[in-house]
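Recall the central idea of this unit: under ordinary conditions, the amino acid sequence of a chain determines the structure it adopts. In this exercise we apply that idea directly, starting from the sequence alone.
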Amino acid sequence: MLQTSAISDVRTRITAIRPAGADVSILSMSCPEIAAVARPGNFVNIKVNAADQPLLRRPFCIHNVQGDTIDVMVKNVGRGTSLLCEASCGESLMVLGPLGNSFGTGTGDFDTALLVSGGIGTAPMLFLEKTLAAAGISFHHLVGGRSHTDLLTTGLSNVTTSTDDGSEGFHGNVVQLLEKHLAEREVGRVKVFACGPNAMLRALARFCRDRAIACELSLESVMGCGVGICYGCMVELTNADGEKESILLCREGPVIDGSRFTA
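Accordingly, the structure predicted from this sequence is:
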């Protein structure tokens, strides 16, 4: 998991907007400086308009990189994300990034990557999939949601789904789906890469810890600056001695070792 050193603050324009699910859109922006050095798991902080309000930027995982263009997946949950989802092609934005660290895909200590996500947690997974595929690493997506309308699988390949209400795929949560997947398949040395709601990630981290499965989690937090100045993204984790410690997620994350999130 490497910290990005080449950070750019880019004024750009939205080049495409397309729906990805209920209240979810994918925005494309030309950001060659960011695209050139971005890694799966990195995020960007976006100033959603030129007005004073909303004041703070909004953080988004980099969903995909295609040439000079980066994509972000946006769920309409508040004023800032609403402005982005309702924006038009050509609108100007300020984009700071790439920020944070990245998923550890180049360690060579696993044969199969299991990409586990819930809801909007699929946001970093397309970029991760493409990076794994380019390196010749086997991967499989396990995507969960409360119902079929929460499943965001556009563009992903090799996907198995689960829903809490049984409306699509496996009837159960995505951690139960992972347990089923491991029991039914010979997958060799496995590493789990995950993003989603905190309750899901904690359950997943405990599952992996109890089975000695390598696990990396991409966490979410409110991030005002994205570079460790505002101290708005403090997250409490557990260290190797079992003691509580606080980190700034924008500087030491958003990707963390799952063993630190099991308490």
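The chain has six helices and 15 strands.
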